[in-house]
Amino acid sequence: MSAFDDLMVFQRETEALAQIAGRLGWDQETMMPRGAAAQRGEEMAAVEGVLHARRVDPRITDWLEMIDEGHLDDAGSAQLRHIRRSHARASKVPAALAARLARITSEAQGIWAEARENEDFAAFAPTLSEVITLKREEGMALAAGGDIYDAMLDDYEPGATGAELEAMFGALRPELTRLREAVRSAEAPPVLQGKFDESAQMKLTRQLAKTFGYDMSMGRVDKAVHPFSSGSGLDVRITTRTNETDPFNCFYSTIHEVGHACYEQGIDRAYLLTPLGAGVSMGVHESQSRIYENQLGRSRAFTGWLFGQMKDAFGDFGVADEDTFYRIVNRVSDGYIRTEADELQYNLHVLLRFDLERALMGGELQVDDLEAAWNDRFKADFGYEVDKPSNGVLQDVHWSVGLFGYFPTYSLGNVYAGCLNDALRKDVTDLDDQLTVGDTRAATGWLRENVQSHGGLYHPKELITRATGSAPSEAPLLSYLSSKFGELYSL
To answer: What is the UniProt remark on how the cofactor binds and its stoichiometry (predicted)?
Structure first.
């Protein structure tokens, strides 16, 4: 077994270097001075060059050929599956292209942020065009004659295809639209009023992180323009953001990112710094963040507890009782920002991006036409016009950093979360009684045991099927949304 041992030692070093690269990205989004962007691009390119060289190292092929899988356990075989896949994909991408992509996507973040601040898509368009050109070149190398978008999607949701997701999303859209229109015709809950001290928000948001099981001895909470989670194993960091008039933005961004972070913190320590030591896919990752945020965090039971915590933190903030608070938290309202969207409309934002980025990668849509295409599609889907680029095409960081194929995993994660919520509530029959007193341990423990601890051991669909007893389907999500918002709005 020396070949397997040698391969895993080599892989452990590669995984450690990848974590360092991730830490550079975290720093860029949180603490790095703006003037350092060009140098950081060079640093990221240098690290990516080292990582790419290790991922295509010919010794990997030799080790893989020498290993007798018949002597491996399930975890060992899964390690090899991931290493083979990574090696095969990396070997198709020229080192120079990988470095160019690392450099331009690092620099593009700052250009995007400045364009967003100045409401100037034209200032970002040339850089985005360069990113897309390089990503299409990478996609063609990976696809080897197949579908470019599928090749990109495989980076985030192994085994999924654009056509498969198009069918699933096609089943989601009409039901979401029908329910949304019914809600719009009903009486709306009140809107939260007043100002909420931002330091008090951060204090409560850190309490919420701990309430959902985030281990602060191996993590931290910082502020960023776009909330995110970074790292795995023993160093998993999250960011959130504050808004003086909207504390829910802070609280639910935090709970969402804690879902991601707890997934990484919950993986079996035996898999630390190995291919199994990270979430198996972004769809599964998103299932954790969304079930933490929505099915648990926005439930009637948990919001009753949160209502008391907010009264302690802010005093009388103008909401009469727990039921009113629950309705305010889950209020369906018009808005432009995906990350701030209510449960009912969130997936419509994702479906818009999915269709646009497939068109960009397929060459049917050019960057010069992207802003108009976005605005037209938004008007068609939501019924009102985008008022400024930061509320439209410039609102997300993903395309600037080359994350094409990432957006659909947000909705796939919602689908997975719907399936997991059904199974969780069947197994933990007194869940709401526990959430009423702010006790999430049974829920988060169930998710850790059935999903998080396995890391990359199983294929994404296999993992969800094992956890729930059924193949993934959009039906549980639609049933949950229909029941919840039907009751909330007396439909």
So the answer is: Binds 1 zinc ion per subunit.
